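May I ask you for just one protein sequence along with its backbone structure tokens in two labelled lines?

_____
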Amino acid sequence: MSLKSKQPLFAAESMSFKSIEINLDDDDDGTAWVQTGATLGELYYKIAKESEIHGFPRGLCPSVGLGGHISGGGFGTLVRKYGLAADQVIDAYLVDVDGKVLDREKMGEDVFWAIRGGGSFGVILAWKIRLVRVPPIVAVFNIQKTLSEGASKLVHKWQYIANKLHEDLFIRVIAENSGTNPIRTVKASFNSLFLGRTQRLIPLMDGAFPELGLQEKDCTEMGWIESVLYFSGYQKGDPLEVLLNRTTIYKSSFKAKSDFVKEPIPEKGLEGEWEKLVEEEEALALLIMDPFGGKMDEISEFEVPFPHRKGNLYNLQYMVKWEENGIEESKRQCEMDENAL
């Protein structure tokens, strides 16, 4: 029950509802019925056990529950190729206020529209999702640059091209404070997934973003499910079973907020953000920039209750992470995040 809401409400614990049924013969690319308490990691694991060429557009944290992820839209490394997790939902089971279990037909198209990214309109028991095709081999790279190595100009240029790249190419930027006093700086990581081989990736990068200087030695080829482990922070050689772990590998406290950016931030504006990051000496401060464009530009802003489609360059997330526990430290770090905004 909520202690703050003026209206009576309750929260239902769904973590035990975690059944996943994969059907590769259904629809053109296969479908899955996934109960709302299943985690993203459990879904990836189940898909990988059935096929090396099927995937699902999803977030990067495998311990996140699918129910809440879809209810908020849900995007990750496949967002430019296939859109949101919510865009792949084709049916659902929902318990309404009278305790009736409704599928898409019985709940009606208005309610079905609302539950795919618009929040809670009942208790979701399960989602029927459309799977997507992924190549058997993908390429990843992670190039890091500090301010002295031209990171600011590279991030500025990235804003103009990231949403216009080939839809198979996803390049996000993670900018974070780095170093110790008196030498403090910002490090920008250009973190990428390409749905293809390195041989095809290099010419695309040479044409669209030559300033980054990507070379073949910077790229690593792997299967799609291995890229899921890679972006989740696991080490090369870790077994797929780590995706079944419901506890996070990162234990730090954190606060995060996000914006959707429609106009590139000027270089002076970026410099101001770098100053804010460097000012934070006792916590890790980050800006995470996830590009849109591609499929996101093709889907109407009214298709599901996630309006940030064409015209949005990227999602910008502000985050601070700290190790020290306690109310005062948490308040201080939250204030730092507000100042960055």
User: Anything to note?
Assistant: Residues 92 and 127 are 4 Å apart (CA to CA). DSSP finds eleven helices and 14 strands in the chain. The chain has a mean pLDDT of 90. The longest strand covers residues 169-180.
